[in-house]
């Protein structure tokens, strides 16, 4: 069966949201890595500025050290908010995506149940018809060999007064061998049906 356009559109919308979230997450991760790298560099610059101020406490070095501290403070503040930003986006997007997933699954269940309701009767009738056809075909094969073969031969033998041993010596020798095994040394048994084959088809949807 094919799902409805409404459902496939919902799936497409969900995938777009998931892709958007992935893009946002990657963007935040890249940004956070950039901030982290900038913070490391700024802390190194601050260490240099502190050392320079200690060696020469000039107004210029004092200004550089002050600016370096300001830059480090800004980056530390931004870096400390990285996990908060990530968690906020995660909670928001996860809730949205989960709601969409549940909506899709409920809609899919409804459509699948409706499909079963509409088609199950026909499918079961097909099985019933196939079973009847198989049994009738098996009976026809039996009648071909045993009724129109063996029985007809012995009816004629009795009609013409042939004794049992003479009839036995000349009979066609037809026999019906019940097909017990699915696999034999010379290949699959294509005419018999056994429980294993039936279970495979019913329970696993497999035909071997």
TrEMBL record:
This is Uncharacterized protein. It comes from the Bacteria. Residues 58-85 form a coiled coil. The keyword Coiled coil applies. Keywords: Coiled coil.
């Amino acid at each position: 069966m094919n799902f409805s356009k409404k459902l496939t559109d919902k799936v497409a919308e969900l995938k777009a949201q998931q892709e958007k979230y992935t893009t946002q997450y990657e963007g935040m991760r890249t940004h956070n890595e950039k901030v982290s790298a900038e913070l490391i560099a700024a802390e190194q610059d601050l260490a240099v500025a502190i050392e320079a101020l200690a060696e020469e406490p000039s107004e210029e070095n004092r200004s550089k050290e002050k600016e370096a501290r300001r830059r480090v403070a800004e980056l530390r503040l931004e870096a400390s908010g990285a996990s908060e930003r990530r968690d906020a986006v995660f909670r928001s997007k996860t809730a949205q995506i989960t709601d969409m997933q549940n909506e899709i699954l409920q809609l899919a269940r409804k459509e699948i149940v409706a499909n079963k309701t509409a088609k199950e009767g026909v499918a079961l009738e097909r099985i019933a018809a196939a079973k009847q056809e198989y049994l009738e075909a098996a009976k026809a094969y039996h009648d071909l060999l045993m009724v129109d073969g063996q029985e007809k031969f012995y009816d004629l033998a009795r009609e013409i007064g042939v004794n049992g041993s003479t009839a036995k010596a000349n009979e066609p020798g037809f026999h019906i061998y019940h097909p017990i095994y699915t696999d034999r040394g010379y290949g699959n048994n294509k005419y018999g049906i056994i429980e294993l084959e039936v279970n495979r088809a019913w329970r696993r949807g497999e035909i071997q």
